[in-house]
C-alpha cells in the first residue's frame, strides 16, 4: 500500500494527497504533518519507512468538504485519490493485492464546484494570462456556472482587470509569473505556473474546437493568438485538474476594455465597492444595495457594479427595466415571492456536468424551471422593456424537460444517489417491482402462498424460509401424495422430506427468492441508471438552461434595483453622451443606510455640478476645489458622487433627487492613506504612485476624486504638488474632478483657471463649539478648525490650549510676513505653556481595620473565631470614626 501511495504522490508533489482508505482519506509523511497542523487534527503514525515511523492523519470521507475548504483557504492544493477497483477484483490477483487507486481530481482555489466550498453570491473565477509576441490577453472562467470570457490585456492593464474580477486563482506560463506576482499576492489569489506548451495558440485552438464540438471558433467571434493562448491555457488546466472530465462551459464571450468603465484596484478599495476597507462584505456598497433574492441575481449585481457599462443604449435599456418594475409594484412583489424559491440553476448544471451532482441538483433544475415557467406565464402577455422581454423569452420552451423531471423525481430527493428513493413511483415498472420486493418481501410471499393454497386445494400449505434451503413450500405428510402426483408434480419440485412434512419448491419461487435477495441492490442500480439518463437529458439542453438561468438572474437583478429605488427614494438618472455631471440632492448610499439603521439624524443631501463647458450646463466649472474642516464630510461628498456615477452606469437608479450624467469612461479615487510595507513604500509614496497613475491615465471623460494630495510631506512640498496636480488635471487631463484640500492657498486658482470652482463644507461656531452642518456650498473655507477637531477627539485640554497659542502666533506671523512669522515662532514661550508637574498626593495613613482584614484567612476561621472577629472589627470601626 505504501508503495502505491509513494508512486501516486510522486506525480503530485505540489499537492496534499487525500488517499482513500475505506471511509477515510488518509495522508502520510510530510502531507500528514502539514495537514494535521493546518486542520488542527491529531497526528499519529502507521508503520515504518526506512526505519522511521510514518506520520499519518486522516479525515472522514463524509466530512471531507469542510476540511477541503480549510486547506484551500490556507493555500494548499489537494489531490483526491479514490479507489477505482472493486476490492473483490483485487483479491482475485492474490490475498495481498492492493486495490487500484487513481487521482480523480485536483482541488485548487479556482476549480471549486461544491456549495460548501463556494460563496453562493459571488463568482469563483479562474483566470489565465498569456502573451504572444507583442500581444497579450486575459481569459477567465467560473466552472461553477460555466461563464467563460476573454479580452485583450497588455501587462499594464493586468492590475485593474484582475482587481475587477478578483479571481481565486491565476495561471500563467512558467517563467512569466513576474508581472503577476505582486498583483496576485495583493488580491490573495493563488498564482499557478503551467508549462509553456499549455499556452501554445495553435494547440489551444484545437482544444477549444474539441471542447465546444465545432469545426471553427468563428461562430463565437474572431480571437487573436494571445486570446486563443489564454483560453487554451484554461482548458488545459481544467483537463489536468479534473482528470479529463471537463465542466460545462458556455461559449467564450470576447470583451473589450472600452466596454466597461475603467476602475483601478486602488479606486475599488477606496470606494469599497464589494469589500469594506476593514475586510468583509459588511460596510461595502454591495451590502448596502443588495436586494436580490437569488444567487444568480446577486452574482449579476456584483458583475454590473464591478464593470459598469460605457454603452449609452445598454445603460438606458437597463434603466428602462428598473423603471417598469418601479411603476408596476404589484408585479415586482409577486416576482420577489417567486424568485425566492429559485435555486442556483447554473451551479447545479455545472455539478451534473462534472459528475459531482446528485438528485438534489436534478431537483434544482426542476424547481428552477417551475419558477421560470410561473414567471413567464405571468409576464409573457405584458408589454415590457426589451431587457425584461428577452429575459422572459429565455424562460419559455422548457415544458418537455420540466414535465419529465416532475414525473421522474420525488418532491424532496436525498443528497446522494447511493441513498436511493429519489425516483418517483410509476416511472419504471422494474424499479417498482424491485422496491416492492425489497420493502414488502413478506407480503409478496404471503400472496404467493395464498395462490398456491388455492391452486392445490391444500389450505395448510405454507411458504417458509431457512438458511439452508432458502424459501420453500411445506405441506404435511397427509397432503404430500397430492403434490407428488400428476399434474402438480410437474410444477412442485420435491426438495426435502422430514418426519412430519414434505418440502417443495417451484421455478417461480426460486426466481422470486433471487429477486428478493437482490432487490435492494437492483433497485439502487436501476435508480443509478435512471439518474444517468436524466442527467443526459438535462445536459443535452444545457445551453437553453443556461439562458434560462441568465434570464432569471436578469429579472431578479432588475426587480431588486426597483425595490431599492422605491425603498430608499432613489431616482432615474438622465444619461447622455456628453460631459454633463449635474447631481441634485445627492446622498452616500452606505452612510445613509448606516444612519437609518442607527436611528440617527437624516443624511444631509448635497448638489454637485461638474458639467463643464460643453453647453449642457450653466456652470462652466468641471473641477470643484473643496475646502473645509476635517469631520465635516468632504470625503463622504467625494465618494458619494463617484458612487452615483458608478451606480448610474451599472444600470441602477441613483441616491439623489435627480441626476444628469454624461457617460464616464474612467473613475479614479485617491482618498485615504496607508503605507505598503511589503513593497517598501511609505504612506506618501503610495499617495504619489496612485496620483501618478491618475494623471497619466485619466481622459477627458474620466471622473476623478482626490483628497488631500500632498499631505504626507512638508507643507510647501505638499502645497506645490497639490497645486501642480490641479493645474495638470485642468489643462491636460481636462476631466471632471472633485479635489478636496486643506491648502487654502489653492483657492486662489479659481480666479486663474476658468474650469475650477471653489466649494466648501459649511460649519457653524456657537459658544466656542464647532457644529458640522455637512452642507456643501460655493465658496472657500477661511480655516480648517483642526484644533477644534482635536479637542473633540479627546486631546488633553493643556495640549489643545497650547495648540491654540501656537496657531494664533503662526497666523499672526503669516499676516505680518515671513520674517515676522519666524520672529514670533522664536519668541513663543515654548515651555511656559507646559503645566507644572502634578503634585503627587501623600500616601494614605495606615488603616488598622484594613490591615486586620488583610491578615485574616477566612478558610481557616472557626465559627467562634469568626464571631469574635466581627466584634473586633466593630470596635476598630468605632475607633476609626
TrEMBL record:
Family matches, as Gene3D superfamilies: 1.10.1420.10, 6.10.140.430, DNA repair protein MutS, domain I, MutS, connector domain, P-loop containing nucleotide triphosphate hydrolases
Function: This protein is involved in the repair of mismatches in DNA. It is possible that it carries out the mismatch recognition step. This protein has a weak ATPase activity.
Keywords per UniProt: ATP-binding, DNA damage, DNA repair, DNA-binding, Nucleotide-binding
Superkingdom of origin organism: Bacteria
Binding-site residues for ATP, renumbered to this chain: 628-635
One BP annotation, GO: mismatch repair
A single GO cellular-component term on record: cytosol
UniProt organism field: Brevirhabdus pacifica
Protein name: DNA mismatch repair protein MutS
Amino acid at each position: 500500500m505504501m508503495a502505491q501511495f509513494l508512486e501516486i504522490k510522486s506525480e503530485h508533489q505540489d499537492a496534499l494527497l487525500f488517499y482513500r482508505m475505506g471511509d477515510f482519506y488518509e495522508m502520510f509523511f510530510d502531507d500528514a504533518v502539514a495537514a494535521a497542523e493546518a486542520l488542527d487534527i491529531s497526528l499519529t503514525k502507521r508503520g515504518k519507512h526506512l526505519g522511521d515511523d510514518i506520520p499519518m492523519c486522516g479525515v472522514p470521507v463524509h466530512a471531507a468538504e469542510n476540511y477541503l475548504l480549510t486547506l484551500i483557504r490556507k493555500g494548499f492544493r489537494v489531490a483526491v485519490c479514490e479507489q477505482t477497483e472493486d476490492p473483490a477484483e483485487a483479491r482475485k490477483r492474490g490475498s495481498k493485492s492492493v486495490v487500484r487507486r487513481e487521482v480523480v481530481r485536483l482541488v485548487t482555489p479556482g476549480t471549486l464546484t461544491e456549495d460548501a466550498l463556494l460563496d453562493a453570491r459571488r463568482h469563483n473565477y479562474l483566470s489565465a494570462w498569456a502573451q504572444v509576441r507583442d500581444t497579450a490577453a486575459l481569459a477567465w472562467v467560473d466552472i461553477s456556472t460555466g461563464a467563460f470570457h476573454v479580452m485583450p490585456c497588455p501587462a499594464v492593464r493586468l492590475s485593474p482587470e484582475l482587481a475587477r474580477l478578483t479571481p481565486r486563482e491565476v495561471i500563467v506560463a512558467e517563467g512569466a509569473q513576474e508581472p503577476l506576482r505582486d498583483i496576485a499576492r495583493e488580491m490573495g489569489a493563488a498564482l499557478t505556473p503551467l508549462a509553456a506548451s499549455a499556452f501554445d495558440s495553435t494547440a489551444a485552438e484545437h482544444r477549444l474546437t474539441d471542447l465546444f464540438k465545432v469545426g471553427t471558433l468563428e461562430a463565437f467571434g474572431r480571437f487573436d493568438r494571445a486570446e486563443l493562448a489564454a483560453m487554451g491555457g484554461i482548458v488545459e488546466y481544467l483537463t489536468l485538474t479534473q482528470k479529463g472530465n471537463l465542466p460545462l462551459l458556455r461559449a467564450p464571450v470576447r470583451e473589450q476594455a472600452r466596454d466597461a468603465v475603467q476602475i483601478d484596484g486602488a479606486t475599488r478599495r477606496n470606494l469599497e465597492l464589494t469589500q469594506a476597507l476593514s475586510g468583509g462584505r459588511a460596510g461595502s456598497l454591495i451590502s448596502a444595495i443588495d436586494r436580490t433574492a437569488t444567487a444568480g441575481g446577486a452574482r449579476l449585481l456584483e458583475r454590473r457594479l464591478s464593470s459598469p457599462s460605457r454603452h449609452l443604449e445598454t445603460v438606458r435599456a437597463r434603466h428602462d427595466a428598473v423603471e417598469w418594475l418601479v411603476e408596476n409594484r404589484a408585479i415586482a412583489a409577486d416576482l420577489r415571492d417567486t424568485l425566492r424559491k429559485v435555486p442556483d440553476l447554473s451551479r447545479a448544471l455545472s455539478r451534473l456536468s462534472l459528475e459531482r451532482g446528485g438528485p438534489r441538483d436534478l431537483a434544482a433544475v426542476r424547481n428552477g424551471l417551475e419558477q421560470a415557467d410561473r414567471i413567464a406565464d405571468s409576464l409573457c402577455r405584458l408589454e415590457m422593456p426589451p431587457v425584461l422581454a428577452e429575459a422572459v423569452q429565455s424562460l419559455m420552451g422548457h415544458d418537455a424537460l420540466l414535465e419529465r423531471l416532475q414525473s421522474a423525481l420525488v418532491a424532496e430527493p436525498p443528497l446522494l444517489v447511493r441513498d436511493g428513493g429519489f425516483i418517483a413511483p410509476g416511472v419504471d415498472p422494474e424499479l417498482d417491482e424491485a422496491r416492492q420486493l425489497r420493502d414488502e418481501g413478506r407480503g409478496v410471499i404471503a400472496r404467493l402462498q395464498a395462490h398456491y393454497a388455492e391452486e392445490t386445494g391444500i389450505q395448510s400449505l405454507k411458504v417458509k424460509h431457512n438458511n439452508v434451503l432458502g424459501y420453500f413450500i411445506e405441506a404435511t405428510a397427509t397432503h404430500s401424495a397430492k403434490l407428488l402426483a400428476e399434474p402438480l408434480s410437474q410444477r412442485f419440485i420435491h426438495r426435502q422430506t422430514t418426519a412430519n412434512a414434505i418440502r417443495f419448491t417451484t421455478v417461480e419461487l426460486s426466481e422470486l427468492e433471487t429477486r428478493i435477495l437482490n432487490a435492494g441492490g437492483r433497485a439502487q442500480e436501476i435508480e443509478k441508471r435512471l439518474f444517468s439518463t436524466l442527467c443526459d437529458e438535462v445536459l443535452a439542453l444545457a445551453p437553453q438552461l443556461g439562458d434560462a438561468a441568465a434570464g432569471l438572474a436578469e429579472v431578479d437583478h432588475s426587480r431588486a434595483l426597483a425595490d431599492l429605488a422605491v425603498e430608499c427614494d432613489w431616482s432615474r438618472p438622465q444619461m447622455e453622451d456628453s460631459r454633463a455631471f449635474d447631481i441634485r440632492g445627492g446622498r452616500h448610499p452606505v452612510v445613509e443606510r448606516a444612519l437609518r439603521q442607527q436611528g440617527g439624524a437624516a443624511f444631509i443631501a448635497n448638489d454637485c455640478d461638474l458639467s463643464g463647458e460643453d453647453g449642457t450646463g450653466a456652470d462652466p466649472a468641471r473641477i470643484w476645489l473643496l475646502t473645509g474642516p476635517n469631520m465635516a464630510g468632504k470625503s463622504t461628498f467625494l465618494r458619494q458622487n463617484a458612487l452615483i456615477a458608478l451606480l448610474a452606469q451599472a444600470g441602477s437608479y441613483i441616491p439623489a433627487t435627480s441626476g444628469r450624467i454624461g457617460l464616464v469612461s474612467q473613475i479614479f479615487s485617491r482618498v485615504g492613506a496607508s503605507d505598503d510595507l511589503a513593497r517598501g513604500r511609505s504612506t506618501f509614496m503610495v499617495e504619489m504612485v496612485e496620483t501618478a497613475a491618475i494623471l497619466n491615465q485619466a481622459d477627458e471623460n474620466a471622473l476623478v476624486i482626490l483628497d488631500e494630495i500632498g499631505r504626507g510631506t512638508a507643507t510647501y512640498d505638499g502645497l506645490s504638488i497639490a497645486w501642480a496636480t490641479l493645474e495638470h488635471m485642468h489643462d491636460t487631463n481636462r476631466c471632471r474632478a472633485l479635489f478636496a484640500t486643506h491648502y487654502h492657498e489653492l483657492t486662489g486658482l479659481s480666479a486663474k483657471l476658468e474650469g475650477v470652482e471653489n466649494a466648501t463644507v459649511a460649519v457653524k461656531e456657537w459658544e466656542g463649539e464647532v457644529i458640522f452642518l455637512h452642507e456643501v456650498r460655493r465658496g472657500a473655507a477661511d480655516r480648517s478648525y483642526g484644533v477644534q477637531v482635536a479637542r473633540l477627539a479627546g486631546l488633553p485640554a493643556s495640549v489643545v490650549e497650547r495648540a491654540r497659542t501656537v496657531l494664533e502666533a503662526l497666523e499672526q506671523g503669516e499676516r505680518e510676513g515671513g520674517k515676522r512669522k519666524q520672529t514670533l515662532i522664536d519668541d513663543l514661550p515654548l515651555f511656559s505653556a507646559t503645566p507644572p508637574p502634578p503634585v503627587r498626593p501623600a500616601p494614605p495613613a495606615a488603616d488598622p481595620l484594613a490591615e486586620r482584614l488583610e491578615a485574616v484567612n477566612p478558610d481557616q476561621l472557626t465559627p467562634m473565631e469568626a464571631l469574635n472577629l466581627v466584634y473586633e472589627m466593630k470596635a476598630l470601626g468605632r475607633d476609626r470614626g
